[in-house]
Amino acid sequence: MESQLPALVIVVPLIAAPICIALRRPGLTLGFALAVVWAVFAMAIKLELTVLDQGVVTYAMGDWSAPWGIEYRLDTLGSFVMTLVAGMGAVVLTYARSSLASEIPREKLYLFLSTYLLAMTGLLGICITGDLFNLFVFLEISALSSYALISMGSDRRALTASFQYLILGTIGATFILIGIGLTYMVTGTLNMADMAARIGEVGLSRTVLAAFGFLTVGVAIKMALFPLHVWLPNAYTFAPSVVTAFLAATATKVSVYVFIRFIFTVYGPDYGPEVARLDAVLIPLALVGIFVASTVAIFQRNIKRMLAYSSIAQVGYMAVGIGFGTVTGLTGGIVHLFNHALIKGGLFLAMGSIFLRIGSVDIRDMHGLGRRMPWTMFAWVLGGLGLIGVPATAGFISKWYLIQAALESDLWPVAALMLISSLLALVYVWRVIEVAYFLQPDRPVDRCEAPPLMLLGTWVLIGASLFFGIFTDYSAGVARRAAEMLLGVVS
Q1: In this predicted structure, which of 200-204, 279-283, 343-347 has the lowest mean pLDDT?
Q2: 212 in a domain, yes or no?
């Protein structure tokens, strides 16, 4: 049974999706989906422990060995991101019962849960596949499911946001497919490990460079890297609260994982920085994106939109780490991928609780909310401190590595700019704190704390962000192992 886990972690949620449609009954379907996501999380943990203990885990589909057959290949980075996706999927769905009851029509719940499991299947498949074409297939499974999930928002603008995401996501997918096709034309293989070896033999042809450009732009759209981010604010703002939290914690993070995989596994650690000079484009764009998105976030009244722009800025930090192309820089980018998923997932779950109780996420409706929803708002404050990068939070660990990487590379202006950008995060986080704790509500209101399961889900993620801000052996340790593996450094 254990030897089949690489297949089961994909097959179980994939088969469970149509079963949800067959079950239809809301309570039964939700209970079944919860059992599935927690089982998948347990399998992901087991696989990661195996990888950390024994090294790379491979699985040949149908006993057709690579590179002729489809190979599932799980290394340190893939298992790290896979466990993150599975864990976020389980926690968010556990949180979801009351939120879904208020935002999704009861008769459509089974469709929502089926689509949720399909999205999770696609994201997990991206992390585990060792085949480029299957990576594209899983990317599209997750993307198409995400479009449907976003469109289920109660606001009519959710349909427009979903359509905009569909258009830009399709453009990104087309670029990725063209890049894969060009690379296949040169190497004659779709297996990533085999392709990496053959690219080295082919050399620096224009076809390889063109493929690299197509893949870079396509994945940059998927990960919402500035200035290719325009689909993200509306998608996060108008999607159901549960969907926003799940996608914010997983979708862009998996896209960053794909970006890292293309650059350092397929093309190799020397190609992007030394041949294509990706760092000369990536770091400046990422820094501009951090400042522009953070500045725009300051002026948002809708807190979900504010957090959406914050996510664009945080993707910029990950891109800066990738751009350094060093062990410390890549460690910072990977650990920020993990830490930001916890922080932003917790913040969006808190906003889902607020929307359930007051029917709004507008900052003008949050006067005195710190006294009305003390536990929810305190969780939001702690998550906000993580975004700023206050010591003892996970956000501090990420920025510490990134600043250290900048100084190691003699890029002290980059380090200074990252420090200054944290002040912008302080401004937009403080706006919410000021309104919630220091302004009186317009009329007397009763205490209206979130339901227990919603509080539990929120605090699990915020608590984890604090835990990994103090105890970094797992998060930073695994991230460093992954960075050394990608760069071929022997520790």
Answers
A1: 200-204
A2: no
Check residue 273 and give its pLDDT. 61
**pTM for this model (two decimals):** 0.91
d(C-alpha 254, C-alpha 249), whole Å: 9
In a domain, 292, yes or no: yes
pLDDT above 80 (res 271): no
User: Is residue 362 assigned to a domain?
Assistant: yes
Domain count, the chain: 1
pLDDT digits (tens, 9 = 90+) for 194-207: 888 888 777 677 88
Domain of residue 281: give its range: 277-491
Residue 430 inside a domain? The answer is yes
Two structure tokens written together for 361: 């996420």
